Fold each of these.
Amino acid sequence: MIRLDAMEILDSRGQPTLAVAARLEDGTQAWARVPSGASTGSKEALELRDGDPERFLGKGVERAVAHVLGPLQDAIAGLSPYRQEEIDRALREADGTPAKSRLGANAILGVSMAVARAAAKSRGVPLYRYWKPRGPYRLPVPLLNVINGGRHADNNLDLQEFMLVPHGFPTFRRALQAAAEIYQHLKNHLREKGLSTGVGDEGGFAPDLKSDEEALELLVAAIERAGYRPEKEVSLAIDAAASELGEKGRYRVQGEALESFGLVALYQRWSRLYPIVSLEDGLGEDDPSGWKALNQALGAQWQLVGDDLFVTQKELILWGQRENLANAVLIKPNQVGTLTETWEALEACEKAGWRAIISHRSGETEDTTIADLAVASGAGQIKTGAPARGERTAKYNRLLLIEKELGDEAVYAGPELFPR
Ligand code: PGA
Ligand code: ZN
């Protein structure tokens, strides 16, 4: 018998979200906490909010809490917690809609994660080992968002995320140290220039700059000031979140309204000027022909990552592979709503030789499930914000602990994924 509990808690933006607990027959109990996005793809599974203006400006999740305690509890009560696929199938069937819109993907994911966490705990193993009992284990390259823009900050940057990719190091720990040092040098540099060092939703700085390009200049300068070698040790990644740039079929970037090809041309220019290795959502989710052109222009050089385009859904990933739209996928469990479907998305990537990046959301909690998922899946990359703010460092610190625990069984993915 699995017993569920659930409650409304706060996420890193101070908005309500769900915490769900699963208690097993042997008395083991574990909690999971559900994240929440701001720049969401239109095909994501539905995040259920109460819409009651009297509470949390309509953002309460009490209905989702009630769904955990009622229909979802009933659906899985008699199942084995060690059979995740059966648990997740029962959760989906209890909901019965394609987008999990009746009971809410936030309610469903909370249960899916809580059961997995409780099952691992009752077996007496860490979560990553519960999923992958034997090594070697691949520690992911962190993609650290150190300058925030777009919907994650109130500054004038159009693009949402400017990230550090510390790949040229022997261990995760050493790579994270480099990123944390660069973050501090970036802060000092901004201060010297009289720019704001206030941060955005994911802990990256959010200054007003002359252009998005200036953000790239600042990152290269910060890498050098910290004593590291751009491209050889530390490269850059961008999440343009281009679905949010749309204006009458064009993209508004750096004061111009560009067509797809204009934006692709800008990226090509940047590919010659800056040590960029990865571009996420370079074009909008409703612009597949633009994606195709982008992939033809830069797919051989850059990792081209679909976030809003694929929303962690296997069928969309398979479509993207047939159409040659990209070469990598951002994996966010709450975009699809269960762990089993998250694993299916990862499998679709692996089968096609596409890369996968495990990801947080801009609204996060202290939950660390995605750190374990990154190690167990061997995806090789994780994107979970700046090396600052507790909800972000919770994941990085979890990975430090896993690497320490694994000792010789841990292999840092950086040099293999981004050889220089
Ligand atoms: P979100 O942002 O969680 O607000 O969607 C993260 C991303 O776009 O990758
Ligand atoms: Zn994104």
Note: The domain at 3-124 is CATH 3.30.390.10 (Enolase-like; domain 1).
Amino acid sequence: MTDIKSMTLEELQAEMERLGEKKFRAGQLYTWMHGKLADRFDNMTDLSRGLREKLREQYELVRLELVRVQTSALDGTSKFLFRLPDGNVIESVLMRYSHGVSVCISSQVGCRMGCRFCASTLDGLERGLKPSEMLDQIYQIQKWAGERVHNVVVMGTGEPLDNYDALIRFLKLLTGEGGLHISQRNVTVSTCGIVPNMRRLADEKLQITLALSLHASSQEKRRTLMPVANKYGLEEVLDACRYYFERTGRRITFEYSLVGGVNDSDEDARELAALVGDLNCHVNLIPVNPIKERDYVQSDRTAILNFKNKLEKSKINVTIRREMGRDIDGACGQLRKSYMDTEKER
Ligand code: SAH
């Protein structure tokens, strides 16, 4: 069955014509799905009974099923486990900040990038998510919270630029009129550095923020943490970041996960400052979230502050990511992984 929630308004108009319906029905349908977040065709009360029946018979209205929610007692962060129509499960996160509600979504079931410190990639890639499945994480969370979602970050499980076409369609449906209409400036896409698709994204004329997972200041070290660096070298990746800034005027965010004794020395900080100093950027330091399958440890507090100071002395914008939801299977992919592991044991 056709996945109707992944269709643009223009495509819906063509579908309505095909069904012998008036073109304006497409607008109504679009608003029901993406504005009013209806989960069933039968709730779309201003469509005729006949049309609703045709829709039910011929189209799939993707809806994620909430399997589990965990809410942090520390900061109100909630982690959600959703079941997809094909039975796979994914996770998403809601974070409450003073500037509003942020949702972090997954872009794939699993991941094939193999970053050494990341839990999402341990079991490899199952498949990319459909645009509707990315959207519905946000829709279900907004309904659950009863609050409008202000920011969306594509930083959950998966590599968004390894699911490129679906990502672009998702971004257009999310930020376009008639849907949630979230400002493009409030959307961030995080990548491990798939260079050709970073360049393609730069050419899409979107105003979203691009975050690059850097994690090391030399090609040698980056390769040991991120296998993708064997394919796309550091210089190439940084060139793609420069290109993104030139095309969009949007400042790049560099994510740098601090791993104790691996990438947190004074030398690392100096090298990083030299590497990104000429770029219009912002560095986000993330104390690594240890996963039990690997023996990486978090840098201690002094090393983290020291690293930050060194960057600041070089006039680099830097923040330390607040660790949210530490008490609820913190790191990316851990909630899904622990759920899958217990399912396997049954
Ligand atoms: N595939 C995208 C999105 C992944 S997750 C990317 O690579 O950017 C978002 C960020 O969290 C990435 O920077 C990723 O490297 C980082 N990350 C993953 N696992 C982590 C962990 N255990 N501790 C700290 N950061 C982690």
Note: Residues 115, 117-118, 155, 159, 190-192, 213, 255, 257, 286, 288-289, 291, 331-332 surround S-adenosyl-L-homocysteine (CB under 6 Å).
Amino acid sequence: MTERLSMRSLGQLAVGVERFGYDRAATTIGVAHLGPGAFHRAHQAWFFDRLLETDPRWAISGIAPKSTTLPDALAPQDGLYALAELEAVTRVRVIGAMTEVLAASRDPAAVLARLAAPATRWLGLTVTEKGYGLDAAGDLDHRNPDIAADLAGRGQGTPRSAVGWVVAGLAARRAAGHGPFVVASCDNLPANGRKLRHAVMQMAAERDAELAAWIEGEARFPSSMVDSITPAADGALLALVESRLGLVDAAPVQREGFVQWVLEDDLGPGAPDLGAVGVTLTSDVEGYEAAKLRLLNGAHSSLAYLGLARGFETVAEAAADPELGALLRDLMIIDIAPAVRAPKGMDVGAYIEAILKRFANPAIRHRLIQIAMDGSQKLPIRLLATVQEALDDGRPVARLGLAVAGWMAFVARETAAGRPLLDPLADRLAATVSDGGAAALLEVREVFPARLAQDARFRAAVREGLNGLGIVATA
Ligand code: CS2
């Protein structure tokens, strides 16, 4: 029986497996992270693992806001896990940075103590677009049950939302006489730091005006752009890692070799020196965000829905299809790129070619259905803003309309097949297509603002797109 990866079995690691070189026992936890899922553990934790080689203050406490699955998987492993970088040559590294994993639903007091600890100087979040509980205007969505409960609770009881935990942590720090931690959103939202700050201020103001004033004056919420294609773990990864380590890892992660973190250069004194481990610190995060969210993520979502409609399973398969590949290239170069205010010095053409090469990576099995989830949250950010700007500029939107129609057809197809939609608006979307067909989704205002939905040029492009996908649409 192969032994489990842990600090005790680390000495049995197979020869040639990369691992952290620092003395883990000499580190202290300086980072708390809400949402320690695959992306955090493959991306930010990899940077902090490298920083720990020279600065022991930045070990991570992973805080699972709702589930106990990951804490239970990592506890027997002392928080250790393997990261596989899948390229022509696959590299595997044991990451030691996560020295604590907490389940907020099981031990809220431990979570609050960690957030309030003087040594905790950084609170990261990867809770996905839906995890912030914001409405289309970027305000706290009072219809979100976790947000509503935390607003009503006014700080009493255990937080239920990510924003609630940020406020509770800051309140505890203020009460203890400590300064705030840096609050670093690492999700695919434009101006993620500003959006999170706004949400935290709204919730804090409901709780205590003086707390809100303190947060406003003292706390920093840098925006960031994060990028690395990180497919969900699968059986192949578990087998690969066991064969490489010679040990069993119940919670490995995998990603491509490319990894980028662009962080707003507003971290304040005492922050981790992330620039020393390859993080780009800049005042122009917005340009990097626009390029990545609209070009990479916009292309990803378009490929997911149009690829699934053609029966493809992975990004590489769909991108290799001659017709889809040509459409994707034109969509990026002709339709999306003109709407992207890229950062100074970025060669957008080269950036697009690099993305297409990354999509074609044969070592990565990135399932389209993973990208297709949460479309109601992703589409406005990744495609609809680009559509509106194209319409305002008088540019054609046929391909963009087809991509949007791809999502609508996906919702209709999954609903007709009785397969559950993974989307915070799942019930609403299923009911809408059941009553009015795919085209009726244009009336879902949480996704399609009225100005866009009522634009005849956009409606025609979507209608054409649906017809091209075999869905007769007259609306
Ligand atoms: C993907 C992203 O699942 C998805 O929605 O588009 O996770 C994508 O892989 C990352 O943003 C790449 O950095």
Note: The first strand starts at residue 18 and ends at 19.
Amino acid sequence: MSHISNDSFWQHISDQLQSEIPAARFDAWIHSLSAHYSDHKLTIKVPSRFFVDGLKSNYGQRITEIACDLAGSPVTISYEVDASLASHSVQSDKNEEPASPASLVDGFIDPRFTFANFVVGSGNEFCHAASHAVADNPGEIYNPLYLYGGVGLGKTHLINAVANCLIDRGITKIAYRTGERFTNELIQAIRNGTSEQFRNQYRQVDVLIIDDIQFIAGKEKTQEEFFHTFNALYEVKKQIILTSDRSPRELTNLMERLRSRFNWGLVADIQAPDLETRLAILSSKAELAGVTLDKDVGHLLAARITNNVRELEGALTRLTAHSTLTGRVIDLTFARHVLRDLLHEEVRSVNIEDIQKKVASYFNINIREMSSSKRSKNIAYPRQVAMYATKELTTMSLPEIGRNFGGRDHTTVLHAVRKIKKMRDESDDFNEEMNRIINLLKQ
Ligand code: ADP
Ligand code: MG
């Protein structure tokens, strides 16, 4: 975005990371870095090659996410070794592998993802309950636990929450991998002749978590290895947790014996949250970020970004960043401007003039009557229908709607909305007619 300067771009990412990760890790990994941003390319200067690997596997994904949110479009990240940084960095010894930030645990478990900040609502309550149960009784009840569903719905959050919960209780022999990393490690081990070590490393854990297991589909060698690891752990009642973007049945190219094992424990699917849950998630994220989110803006985001929580969160991050950097208040106009590409698909959405015009013609009254002071039933009723439809189909607030209906008070609008809602509940015929009207308005 044009008003984020090159310098402040990295500064913002760094600030954001500082608010998310423990101070010691921030100091070790992020603090001494500098970066240059231009034209959707972010070049991060790092002290050594070793550092790059550690940085990438621990924070690469998060850095990319924040950068993309900030830019509002994909950003390419590259790393440039700058030896002069080495003296400032904790990871200064070039011959030493960077210490794993979570030294007790193998693989990076994101401390931001906890049960406490996971909003439970429609779509995710089953997965949440299952994850909680597993965190309370690892290896005991649901083994394996298999969570699946579309992107950005909270699977990775939940399995990290389980891991964080276990760590808090002193269970630290946890191996956390993505399906991709598991595969790459295996390939590396075969190449280096260290397959035996690879195998042993996994058989000694108390909990094995593989995120995005779908990655191993179609990769025979990896599946074979995973199959044996699975059996070894399962036999001694060690907990296995898997996530995937689809159900075991839909995983084509998967060995039958693995597929059946994935079904041995509990398979739970996660679905997109409803409007109410999306609003709750937004307000929770806003609170975590320490910003107050205008109600109308929250409503706009929750209404328009419907099936990916990550995008919802990204929109909030972008708004906050732009507001901080430009000093502007986040109101509806600002939000619509900053997020215009995200909200773009919806520009065809209905506006209030359209609604008034179409409802008036449906009931055969003059459009001017919508804003007139007349209260006769044949006028008041269509007007109430139009007010209700405006509330349902636009993001306008009650006072805004009132103003557009001849300067009426918001309580009048509220009364209309409630009345029509009630009538819909009470009469199937009326409900059907309303559905017809709403469909007309959407065309
Ligand atoms: P997935 O792994 O299913 O693709 P993630 O777990 O990475 O999705 O979630 C994407 C983002 O949305 C994360 O930042 C996560 O914290 C957030 N998120 C998803 N669902 C919820 C929820 N119910 N409450 C709070 N945050 C959520
Ligand atoms: Mg995920």
Note: Residues 50 and 97 are 6 Å apart (CA to CA).
